[in-house]
């Protein structure tokens, strides 16, 4: 892990649960865990279809980062004692189908999916950063670092998608809008259920 990246080790020994705003933290960690879980399933679906193509290594590289993100949120769920969303079995199937389905449109379709999802997630992370900054930036310092780093990774994935011709996908704007509406619905539901 480069020096500027956030450590992905477990932080359970340093979390003081009495001092946190439980509803806010529960919602943030639950939805971020669900989002990273879903992203892993999307990339798994894309790799199932395009893994042996010329874009396979690019997808694998992004998927490896998402695996690290999911591992960290698994640790944070334990450290903060947050239950996962009950929708994980649904996100398991929906994420894989979205990834494989977009990949069936070819490299450009897969990259259009990546752009749509990663833009939605980075915008969502920005909203969470604002919330935590308003709450208490010092109290949530480590969580803020994690979310900022992951937001930056998602923006990088977004840019990789654009560099690999996402905007040339068939019906790009319609595809992007539909996927982003799905992301908003998934965020809304995963925060609450």
Automatic annotation (TrEMBL):
Source species: Rissa tridactyla
Keyword annotations of the record: Iron, Membrane, Metal-binding, Monooxygenase, Oxidoreductase, Ubiquinone biosynthesis
Biological processes per GO annotation: determination of adult lifespan; regulation of gene expression; regulation of reactive oxygen species metabolic process; ubiquinone biosynthetic process
Record-given protein name: COQ7 protein
Keyword Methyltransferase appears in the UniProt entry: no
Pfam family, one: COQ7
Pathway in which the depicted protein is active: Cofactor biosynthesis; ubiquinone biosynthesis
A GO molecular function held by the record: metal ion binding
């Amino acid at each position: 892990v480069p020096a500027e990246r956030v450590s992905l080790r477990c932080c359970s020994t340093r979390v003081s649960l009495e001092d946190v705003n439980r509803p806010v933290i529960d919602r943030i960690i639950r939805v971020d865990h669900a989002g990273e879980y879903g992203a892993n399933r999307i990339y798994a679906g894309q790799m199932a279809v395009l893994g042996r193509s010329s874009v396979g290594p690019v997808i694998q590289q992004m998927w490896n980062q998402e695996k690290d993100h999911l591992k960290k949120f698994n640790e944070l769920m334990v450290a903060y004692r947050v239950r996962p969303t009950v929708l994980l079995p649904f996100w398991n199937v929906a994420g894989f189908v979205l990834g494989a389905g977009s990949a069936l449109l070819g490299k450009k379709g897969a990259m259009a999916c990546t752009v749509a999802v990663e833009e939605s997630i980075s915008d969502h992370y920005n909203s969470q950063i604002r919330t935590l900054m308003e709450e208490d930036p010092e109290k949530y310092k480590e969580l803020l670092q994690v979310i900022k780093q992951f937001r930056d990774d998602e923006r990088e994935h977004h840019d990789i998608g654009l560099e690999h011709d996402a905007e040339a996908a068939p019906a790009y704007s319609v595809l992007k809008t539909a996927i982003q509406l799905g992301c908003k619905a998934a965020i809304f539901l995963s925060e609450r259920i």
